[in-house]
Amino acid sequence: MSEIIVAKRYANALFQLGQERSKLEQIETELRALREIFQKNKGLVKFLKHPRLAASQKKQLLNDSLQGFSKETLNTLMLLIDRHREEIILDMTDHFILKMNDIKGIADATVYSVNPLSEVEKQRISETFAPKVGKQSLNLTNVVDKKILGGIRLRVGNRIFDGSVSGKLNRIERQLVSPNNR
After folding, report:
1. How distant, in Å, are the alpha carbons of 6, 24, 70, 81, 164 from that of 13?
2. Could you tell me the domains of the chain?
3. Element (H, E) at 13
4. Which ranges in the chain belong to alpha helices (H)?
5. pLDDT tens track for 78-117
6. CA nearest 83: which of 174, 173, 3?
7. pLDDT tens digit string along 33-54?
């Protein structure tokens, strides 16, 4: 079975459990923190998959590292370890967060700019582009990219809104060299 499908099933099960116990917000916060840990430590999944590390040691490591996490989140992680599914932890967290965002009418987005954006600028971008993607607001991550020269480039899922100077220059270049203009 595809890892993505399995990850979705675990995320859905954790989501239902969180709904039943009114802990969705807490679990989402924990999974966002967990996702950040796994993204910053690329070798963590490889370490957890190591065959010489016993499942009990893996569980102890996670219990010690994630003190304060809800038992629902910890039990899900323990279940993934028992079933040798450590590689889907990150996908499972992503699916859970995506499901929470859908309920809230929020979409995660990345905005590329030459300089760091202020909170006011992020808020304006969110207010402007959220209706265009059918959401109430956008959860923006700002990435500074000097190559765009100016303006912004916004990525929401698989949609890209390119208002950057480099993007405009590329479009002009394509128009000038296209065979239709000769």
Report:
1. 11, 12, 15, 16, 41
2. 3-101 (1.10.520.20), 105-177 (no CATH)
3. helix 3-20
4. 3-20, 24-40, 44-49, 55-65, 71-82, 89-104, 119-129, 165-177
5. 999 999 898 899 999 999 999 999 898 999 899 999 999 9
6. 3
7. 999 988 888 888 888 888 888 8
Kindly list the distances between the CA atom of residue 106 and the CA atoms of 10, 19, 67, 73, in Å, as whole numbers in the listed order.
22, 18, 29, 22
Residue 130: what are its φ and ψ, rounded to 5°?
-60, -45
Amino acid sitting at position 148: I
DSSP H or E run through 160: strand 159-162
Distance of CA 14 to the CA centre of its chain: 17
* Number of residues written out for the chain: 182
Mean pLDDT of the chain: 90
Q: What residues form DSSP beta bridges with 142?
A: 111
User: Helix 89-104 to helix 71-82 angle, to the nearest 10 degrees?
Assistant: 140
Total Cβ atoms within 10 A of residue 27: 24
Enter the tokens of residue 17.
């459990």
Helix (H, G, I), strand (E, B) or coil at 162: strand
User: What amino acid is encoded at 14 in this protein?
Assistant: L
What does the alpha-carbon distance between residue 46 and residue 109 come to, in Å, rounded to a whole number?
Answer: 28
Sign of the Cα pseudo-torsion (85, 87, 93, 94, in order): negative
pTM of the model: 0.74
